[in-house]
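Quick illustration for those who missed Monday's session on complexes.
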Amino acid sequence: MADFLAIEGLAKADLLRLIDATRGSLAVAEGRAPNRTTLSGRVVANLFLEDSTRTRCSFETAVHRLGGSVFNLTPTGSSVSKGETLIDTARNIECMGVAAIVVRTSISGGAKIVADAVACPVINAGDGRHEHPTQALLDATTLIEEFGSLEGRTIAIVGDITNSRVARSTTHAVTMLGGRVRLVGPPTLVTPAFEQISKGPGTVKTMTNLDAALEGVDAVIMLRVQFERAAGGGVSTDYRSMYGLTQERAARMPAHAIVMHPGPMNRGMEIDDQVADDPTRSRILRQVTVGVAARMAVLENLLAPRPVLEGTSP
Ligand code: CP
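Prediction with phosphoric acid mono(formamide)ester bound:
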């Protein structure tokens, strides 16, 4: 595999290898083991044309943990603000001799556009409403860390499904690993067409009643309402009471069920403070730590001298 652009089309064996590599990188990510030298002498470009805290900083941290160097390019302070195109920007960065380009863009399919324009490996750090594959890798690893396997597990993903690249990527990953996904939200933000996402063996069910969707779940992933993608138009004033993971609602979930959120959170809207900060159920900050290891795993798999990812569809 030359790039890491999507979970859709990835072979299950490759996803499992990446999850293993993520788990194998956790000790380094947590500072419990020495940094590696895999990327020694190599430079990675973070091309972030949309705002980010977790993804950008964890890619930076991952490169440092692997002994490489990284620079960031954002619209402010770069020639993107003068109208330079995504392709021209990526081609110019490539000519600086970078080993890989990590790209975040509001353009759905934008990561593939960059990958087609340059020869170096490209990693999708979130492209519009399309995919966020390293988020799915960290989500799947966090779930497997919790449950050992996703076979037969039920994961509810709640909120702004229509606009969510996280929902799309994580649904692909969970169902590939045999889990059942319930996609939950108001009819304006989730449509039955999403049930076709699954290529199996797991299944996808769309639901509009959150209380029903939380019955028997093993994990719930709450999503941010993405006002910057015009999702606000699909959100009514009773959103919190109907689709928020309130303290009362969380108390009715199975005792073992965990709570996740890709961040950033709209506290008091899709999730209550007490739920987000619940030391027993919440894995939200654990996801962030696992995210560093996930990005290390992807970087090593793409940039290590001997690629280990094989068998992905084009
Ligand atoms: N989960 C995620 O993509 O967060 P950021 O937008 O902060 O990178």
